[in-house]
Amino acid sequence: IGVNIGEISPPLARYLKLPKNTRGVIITEAFEGAPAAKAGLQVYDVIMEINGKRTLDGGQLIGTVSAFAPGTVINVKVLRAGKEKDVKVTVGKRPTRDAMLSQGPGKQNPKGKAAKPAVNVGMVVDEIDPEMRQELGLPKALQGVVISRVSPGGPAEEAGFERGDVIVEVDQKPTPNVRAFNGVFKENRTYLLRFRRGDGLAITSLDLSKKAPPADEADEE
After folding, report:
1. Structural domains for the chain
2. Dihedral sign of CA atoms 4, 10, 14, 20 in order
3. Coil, strand or helix: which one is 182?
4. What pLDDT sits at residue 87?
5. Which residues contact 87 (CB under 8 A, 6 or more apart)?
6. Count of C-beta atoms within a 10 Å radius of residue 125
7. Fewer CB within 10 A of the terminal residue: the chain, N end or C end?
8. Rounded Cα gap, residues 69 and 67, in angstroms
9. How far is CA 2 from CA 15, 54, 109, 148, in A?
10. pTM for the full model?
11. Which residues contact 73 (CB under 8 A, 6 or more apart)?
């Protein structure tokens, strides 16, 4: 149906204020022109059921959808902003890897650096220049900032971030450049980050409420 999905961790469920015991998978990417996007499914929707069958994890969702022939209309129950919604989706052919890689969120935005974040996020990010885009194999349409360094023992490392991850959103707001990224972090709390690693997008939380080790010189840049 043209989506990338992720598991719902307890911190992510708390951040999104999902009802207790919510089970399902979260949409991390909806490919433009694919059945899901055409039907109105959105990033951050939680897929709970397909034709009445619960989708407890990614493997179960893939197995369920794969059983339907292209052209079949299925009912997808999602949780969006705290409300359940039924969406009719017409199953299509699975897109090729090249077709998926050619897409990415966001539009071209002017570069702009700003002072470091007001709080220690435990990582350093850089703009994506043409050479870096080619080196990382990023789609031309993908806009974001790339992690150039993760501080050992810091909140970013604890959240699982790695050098080379491309952050495209923080708290559901695009981060097309370093200025936009740095400007979001103003207080020690939990943030929601959407990022690209490898061929797909993922969503996770970054908890800055814990006392982090002091930023080193690299983080001061």
Report:
1. 3-95 (2.30.42.10), 104-220 (2.30.42.10)
2. positive
3. helix
4. 96
5. 39, 40, 41, 75, 76, 77, 78
6. 22
7. C
8. 7
9. 26, 19, 26, 30
10. 0.76
11. 88, 89, 90, 91
Pairing of strands 46-50, 53-54: antiparallel
Q: What would the mean pLDDT of 10-17 be, rounded to a whole number?
A: 87
* Whole-number Å distance between alpha carbons of 118 and 181: 11
Average confidence (pLDDT) over 188-209 = 92
Q: How far is CA 155 from CA 3, 62, 97, 168, 170, in A?
A: 29, 32, 33, 18, 15
pLDDT, position 199: 82
Contacts for 199 with CB less than 8 Å, ≥ 6 apart: 97, 100, 101
Per-residue pLDDT tens for 31-84? 888 999 999 999 999 999 999 999 888 888 989 999 999 999 999 999 998 899
Cβ(81)–Cβ(66) under 8 Å? no
pLDDT of residue 106: 47
Q: Decide if 141 contacts 32 (C-beta within 8 A).
A: no
Residue with tokens 């360094």: 149
Mean pLDDT: which of 6-10, 72-76, 132-136 is highest?
A: 72-76
The residue assigned the tokens 């997808």 is 76
